[in-house]
Amino acid sequence: MKLLGRMGRNRLVIAAAAVLVFATAGTTTPQQEPLKVLMLGAASHGGDTMTEVLKEVHERYPSLRVTVTENLEDLLLDNLKNYNVLCINRLRVQENNPPDFVKEGIVGFLKQGGGLVTTHFAVANAQNWRDSIHIFGGIWVTGKTTHKPYKEFEVQVKDANHPITKGIRVFKTTDELYYNMLMRPDVHVVLSANEELFGDSIAYPMLTTHTFYGGRVAWMVFGHDAKSAATPEFRQLLAQSLEWAGKRR
């Protein structure tokens, strides 16, 4: 009889545990709010690159909510505070030197923990801003930085363990392959591509990351035109770079 009593109590404990597990499994935790991304410019210097890209990004990545602007005044710090990540495709500024309020806004935003993703030619738009190399990770130097004709080339994954490259393998794209960029010495090279120069094959950075005042920064060489942006890997890398910069991966 004592043995039966123990068995009965055990059944009761097991039943209670099952109810608890079932109740726990049925509850849901609130989903995170999407990252708010402010994208400056839907175009690079090769025309509209982002309109079609963003349609796909919004469909495939509910973690991202991207707002596009052409207005430099949206880079005032008071406005940037409303976003998690800033993405710069093109800075339309005079003499490749942004006005002070843009510089202060970007620096202040990163100081406060915001993330930054820069694509393609934007590094040339700010080349006369002395500190832009520290912020973007690299700058185009007129007369030194260059590229061969727009063409198809292969991209290698240098860091397969980086969160940005999850699901990315060696791929081909049609774009401009920049070389002789002036780079921060501490940037982390995530992707590279080889350019044949004077009998040698030299690996040049295609996607780099670093931090600035603790803010995460990624720069992608990709994004010359709509054909470049049509590459599936470009769209995936852009989305995953935005998520990484926003500390979601």
Short overview:
By secondary structure, this protein is α/β, with parallel strands linked by helices. It is built from 8 helices and 13 strands.
Describe the 3D structure:
This protein has about 250 residues and is of the alpha/beta class. It has one domain: Rossmann fold (3-Layer(aba) Sandwich). Helices cover about 30% and strands about 30% of the residues. It has eight helices and 13 strands. The protein has helices at about 1-25, 50-60, 75-80, 100-110, 120-125, 130-135, 225-230, 230-245; strands at about 35-40, 45, 45-50, 65-70, 85-90, 115-120, 140, 150-155, 170-175, 180-185, 190-195, 200-210, 215-220. The strands form three sheets. Strands 4-1-5-6-13-12-11-8-9 form a nine-stranded mixed β-sheet, with helices on both faces. The chain is globular and about 50 Å long. Residues about 1-30 have low confidence and may be disordered.
